[in-house]
Design brief:
The complex is a heterodimer of chains A (about 625) and B (about 450).
Chain A: E1 4-11, H1 15-26, E2 31-35, E3 49-51, H2 55-65, H3 69-76, E4 77-83, E5 93-98, H4 100-112, E6 117-121, E7 124-130, E8 133-139, E9 144-152, E10 161-164, E11 167-170, H5 180-188, E12 193-200, E13 203-205, E14 215-217, E15 240-244, H6 247-255, H7 278-284, E16 292-297, E17 304-308, H8 316-323, E18 334-336, E19 339-346, E20 363-365, H9 375-393, H10 407-418, H11 442-453, H12 458-480, E21 482-484, H13 488-497, E22 504-506, H14 507-511, H15 518-524, H16 527-530, H17 535-562, H18 583-592, H19 597-601, H20 608-619
Parallel strand pairs in A: 1-2, 1-9, 2-6, 9-20
Antiparallel strand pairs in A: 3-5, 4-5, 7-8, 8-9, 10-11, 10-19, 12-19, 13-17, 13-18, 14-15, 15-16, 16-17, 21-22
Chain B: E1 4-7, E2 16-22, H1 26-33, E3 46-52, E4 59-68, E5 79-85, H2 88-100, E6 104-105, H3 110-117, H4 123-142, H5 145-175, H6 186-215, E7 217-222, H7 229-237, E8 255-261, E9 264-270, H8 280-295, E10 298-304, H9 311-320, E11 325-330, E12 348-350, H10 359-367, H11 376-380, H12 387-408, H13 413-431, H14 436-446
Parallel strand pairs in B: 1-6, 7-9, 7-10, 10-11, 11-12
Antiparallel strand pairs in B: 1-2, 2-5, 3-4, 4-5, 8-9
Classes of the chains: A alpha+beta (about 625), B alpha/beta (about 450).
């Protein structure tokens, strides 16, 4: 009855789908990756960049668990920059501009080189589900593919609608068809579907740009890689450019707002506030007389330039007029106009921490379908879904991450507990354990887990062990290497810092002083360890020392706040039954209808006394407790 | 779980009061109160111990200490119960000492909640706890404390707003490095935080006054014999309670009387005059006087202006100088010496117990420190009445002060922010939580974000 049978089928070969399929296959289960267009595997539909604050953390975590995104961007990144260099190590984060087509090709190459992984081109129109268990998928060309688990990673394709000006048409991305039947299939299965929106800016012809009018933003001299396995960034590095909009341009937008589907009421989906369209920027921040823009070349072998910061859904001909009002772009020609896209997502409160749907066994959702935005957010969900699909097929216990273990844990927990009301993006402030979840220690946090899952190769594992042992050794050396008042070093250090250093000072203490660089500490390391220690390992050890006290405090606070968060509140629970609650509190509770205690805790205006009253009531019925 | 502490018996004066600590550090905290590092009591056995202030090493009380080892306790955690004398002052001192040793004031019903969590309770007991929390709210309503708590919340709101503003600025600087956000002014941020600290301090300082509202203000009249303490006692109380004679040392034991000034309950103690004496009865009286003084919230030192100050007066003054005190210059109707200047005019009221001249001034002076001045918090006088709220305010203040220090050391924002987020959480435990979502909302409405 099936044309082909696999262990796992992954629908969609974007950033979630690629990670999912790669993880499954490498964990030893037969995996099919089905995509509408094989030539667009790993396509960056929007900004050709990966990483950034918190997002870079996610990529490092994906890499530490054995995912592939970090490796691919390291091989295809054309502008690497470490953000927040001047701030503490916990909030530093790598970002890289990708060569869009190289990224795509490298991703496809890696997938094709993966045993047990089978690429298939086709459009999935239906999920085959029997007795709340997924059995496979049906394609447009009537082929039926059987699977023990199916991962849906359809991005913006689910019922996608593109808007430019007053024109609206069905599409998954510009130039690609939407997935209409699959969206219907999900609705039929009873999944609660909502609508989100995102947008993209116009792409320009680089030959028509007056580059001298812009401020150059060069790549880092010593690029910091995403993958722990990468020794060196080989791609030649390019420069990006910064420019600004003008008041004249703002006025033109204001005059033509009625042509924007955002403002004419045509777009119903909710867009991300941290990625507003240029229309939104001009309207909502009217007092700002210019907005910053970035000119980002899309690759080594193309003239196409991405106009970052100018996302718009105004009519194409108007876009052409508008961009020419940007100083330096007076002669510019648009290659591809920007557009807004609306798409379906499924309320993520319908999935488990493993990414499997609660409703249908073996059916997993990953990426934008769960209401997120961003390649990194999608990729990490794909990885977790892939890992769990494979584990399920093999009959092994599920895998999940806690909020204090990884940003991935924070992201998934936020999604399944709170749902979304705008496209969800990761921020460092979402993590209570921000000081612990650093990019430099992602391997120490997660690689042992990745190894246990079978996703870390032996070479990488050995490399990791050496690095971990060295950092442990560094901790001891930093604590035990002391300079006494009588020593030569003491005098010069005291002079350098312009203050007395006590009777003696250890390297660890010294590293905490204002104005002491890690390079200086490195120079002061005992010869026995200096040669084997790179600045990278040393900085990771120093970061541990810097945050030690605060991390302890964060742990205690975390424990207190989140202790009961996973406790379920039964559906249709009658808050009026609780005698101690005032009517006002009951009304607030009924308006939000929280499904877990964690959600309840966050309801605004709920008094602490009301929160504990409900908690006590809930605890009375232990059978309702969610076991996680 | 962290260690919580609370008074387990009803507030107010009683023969015995029980203070209960629960959590992993209970035993360690109590061993510090006993100044006994090797304190390892046999579980479930009561022992009589001396309780000290761990900082000053002064004796607070002698109390019965009982240890319940986890999991064989009410909460299932390590519990230590201190049964001390039921004086609000003693209770307060012990609780304060526990808080200083990093115990946390328990939330309503928190002991029971922990018991529940550790499987120490059944369903019907749970219902009882719910009633308990409810009862606490009702009791609060009865004392019209709820209204004050509402007031506290509304006064805290602008402080939380101010704190949120600072958090938003620092968080945005971290999260959105690529957006051209306006650079923030460190000085402005510091000024804002200092202002918040000052306001919180003002609020938490009303706790003492708030407590007095509930427990009453204890006042001791002291002075050398025959300066007219008993006459003044009668004048303040409003009727002849103390025996007044011309003979010095008539009052041999302390007399107590309760009355109120502007609704504030007062417990006034007349004391035997403080003087060296060979009379055994009187000397016992003098000892008792010293105890009353130690226990008082306010000491009124009575002197006689029909004659100059004596050596004895100066001795008494030196004894009470460090306490909250007032000086009542009595017998102003037959004044011989100008004493006001001798006390630099500070905390001085001239009265005549005989003619009632100045008695109202004295009454006003007594309650003045607990009544309005300028700020909103002080106007309310008794704003913070709940010990837990006071604890949370002090914790919030400490966290912000720590962050200010870190700012001075030019620490990176993510470190500075840990303290500010903690402070926000503590304030949130009084008024309701501020979530990450609230912070992000504020960021997106304040700054134009979006590369």
């Amino acid at each position: 009855m099936f044309d082909e049978v696999f262990d796992v089928v992954v629908i969609g070969a974007g950033h979630a789908g690629c990670e999912a399929a790669s993880a499954c296959a490498r964990m030893g289960v037969e995996t099919a990756l089905i995509t509408i267009n094989l030539d667009l595997i790993g396509q960056m539909s929007c900004n050709p960049a990966i990483g950034g604050i918190a997002k870079g953390h996610l990529v490092r975590e994906i890499d530490a668990l054995g995912g592939i995104m970090g490796r691919v961007i390291d091989r295809t990144g054309i502008q690497f920059r470490l953000l927040n260099r001047s701030r503490g190590p916990a909030v530093r984060s790598p970002r890289a501009q990708a060569d869009r087509s190289l990224y795509r090709m490298e991703m496809r190459r890696m997938l094709e080189a993966t045993p047990n992984l089978h690429l298939r081109q086709g459009t999935v129109v239906d999920l085959i589900v029997k007795n709340d268990r997924v059995l496979g998928v049906e394609l447009q060309d009537t082929r039926r593919i059987g699977a023990k688990a199916v991962i849906v990673a359809t991005g913006t394709f689910l019922n996608g609608t593109i808007h430019t000006g007053q024109k609206t048409f069905s599409a998954g991305r510009a130039g690609e068809p939407a997935s209409l039947e699959l969206a219907e299939s999900l609705k039929r299965l009873g999944f609660p579907v909502g609508r989100l929106k995102t947008g993209t800016p116009p792409r320009l012809d680089g030959r028509t740009i007056d580059w001298d009018a812009f401020e150059p933003q060069p790549a880092d001299e010593n690029p910091v890689a995403f993958s722990f396995s990468t020794e060196k960034i080989e791609q030649p590095q390019i420069t990006c450019y910064i420019g600004y909009t003008s008041e004249r341009l703002h006025q033109k937008i204001r005059d033509n707002l009625h042509l924007s589907p955002l403002y004419s009421g045509r777009i119903k989906g909710i867009g991300p506030r941290y990625c507003p369209s240029i229309e939104d920027k001009v309207v909502k921040f009217a007092d700002k007389n210019r907005h910053q823009l970035f000119l980002e070349p899309e690759g080594h072998n193309t003239n196409e330039v991405y106009l970052n910061g100018f996302s718009t859904s105004l009519p194409a001909e108007l876009q052409q007029e508008l961009v020419r009002m940007i100083p330096g772009l007076e002669e510019v020609k648009i290659i591809r106009p920007g557009y807004a896209i609306e798409y379906d997502f499924v309320d993520p409160r319908q999935i488990k921490p493993t990414m499997e749907t609660i409703k249908v066994k073996g059916l997993f959702f990953a990426g934008q379908i769960n209401g997120t935005t961003g390649y990194e957010e999608a990729a990490c969900q794909g990885l977790i879904a892939g890992i769990n699909a494979a584990l399920q097929v093999k009959g092994r216990p599920a895998f999940q991450l806690r909020r204090d273990e990884a940003y991935i844990g924070v992201l998934i927990d936020d999604l399944i507990r709170n749902g979304v009301d705008e496209p969800y993006r990761i921020f460092t402030s979402r993590a209570e354990a921000r000081l612990l979840l650093r990019h430099d220690n992602a391997d120490r946090r997660l690689m042992p887990k990745g190894y246990e899952l079978g996703l870390i190769g032996d070479l990488d594992w050995e490399k990791f062990n050496r690095r971990r042992d060295l950092i442990m050794k560094l901790h001891r050396v930093l604590e035990n290497t002391r300079f006494k008042r009588s020593s030569v070093e003491y005098a010069s250090l005291s002079q350098l810092l312009g203050c007395d250093l006590g009777d003696s000072i250890s390297l660890a203490q010294l590293s905490q002083r204002q104005g002491v660089s890690s390079e200086l500490i490195h120079r002061l390391l005992p010869e026995s360890i200096k040669s084997e220690t790179s600045l990278k390992e040393l900085e990771s050890a120093l970061a541990d020392i810097l945050y030690k006290g605060y991390i302890e405090n964060q742990k205690i606070a975390y424990e207190r706040i989140h202790h009961h968060d996973n406790m379920k509140i039964p559906e249709g629970f009658d808050f009026r039954k609780i005698a101690g609650l005032s009517r006002e509190m009951v009304e607030r509770l009924e308006r939000v209808r929280p499904q877990t205690f964690g959600q309840l805790r966050r309801i605004s205006g709920l008094t602490p006394a009301a929160v504990s009253t409900v908690l006590v009531y809930l605890m009375a019925n232990k059978s309702d407790r969610c076991v996680t | 779980m962290d260690t919580i502490v609370a008074l387990a018996t009803p507030e107010g004066r009683s023969a015995i009061a029980v203070i209960r600590l629960s959590g992993r550090d209970s035993l360690e905290i109590v061993s510090k109160l006993l100044i006994d590092e090797n304190f390892s009591p046999k579980p479930r056995y009561a022992s009589l111990r001396k309780i000290y202030d761990p900082e000053t090493r002064e004796l607070i009380d002698e109390a019965v200490v009982t240890y319940f080892k986890a999991p064989f306790s009410f909460t299932g955690e390590d519990i230590v119960e201190i049964s001390c004398h039921g004086s609000p002052i003693v209770v307060r001192q012990i609780l304060d000492a526990c808080l200083k040793l990093e115990a946390r004031m328990a939330s309503p019903g928190e002991f029971s909640l922990r018991a529940l969590m550790n499987g120490k309770m059944n369903l019907s007991q749970v219902e009882a706890i719910r009633d308990l929390i409810e009862a606490q709210t009702l009791a609060a309503a009865k004392q019209s404390l709820r209204q004050m708590q509402g007031e506290l919340s509304s006064l805290l709101q602008p402080l939380k707003e101010g704190l949120l503003e600072v958090i938003v600025i620092l968080e945005s600087a971290l999260e959105f490095v690529e957006d051209d956000l306006p650079e923030y002014q460190m000085d402005e941020i510091k000024t804002k935080l200092y202002e918040i600290v000052k306001q919180i301090e003002r609020m938490s300082s009303t706790f003492k006054a708030g407590r007095l509202l509930r427990e009453g203000l204890k006042i001791a009249l002291v002075g050398r014999p025959n300066v007219g303490k008993s006459s003044l006692f009668n004048a303040l109380v409003g009727y002849e309670r103390a025996i007044v004679t011309e003979i010095a040392g008539t009052t041999r034991d302390s007399l107590h009387e309760s009355f109120s000034i502007n609704g504030i309950p007062i417990r006034l103690s007349d004391t035997a005059g403080l003087r060296k004496t060979d009379d055994i009865v009187e000397s016992i009286g003098v000892q008792r006087t010293r105890k009353v003084i130690a226990d008082a919230d306010l000491v009124i030192f009575v002197v006689d202006c029909s004659q100059d100050l004596t050596k004895e007066d100066y001795e008494i003054l030196s004894e009470i100088e460090d306490m909250q005190h007032l000086i009542a210059i009595n017998k102003v109707d037959i004044k011989q010496v100008e004493l006001v200047e001798k006390f630099n005019g500070k905390n001085v009221v001239e009265v005549s117990a005989k003619t009632a001249q100045g008695v109202d001034d004295l009454r006003r002076a007594i309650i003045k420190p607990f009544l309005s001045r300028n700020s909103a918090a002080e106007e309310k006088g008794f704003l913070v009445t709940d010990a837990r709220h006071a604890d949370l305010l002090i914790r919030a203040k400490k966290e912000i002060e720590k962050s200010l220090e870190l700012l001075d050391q030019k620490a990176s924002e993510e470190i500075v922010l840990t303290g500010l987020h903690n402070a926000m959480r503590f304030l949130g435990e009084i008024t309701g939580e501020t979530t990450t979502e609230d912070i992000l909302n504020r960021i997106f409405s304040t700054f134009c974000i979006g590369k």
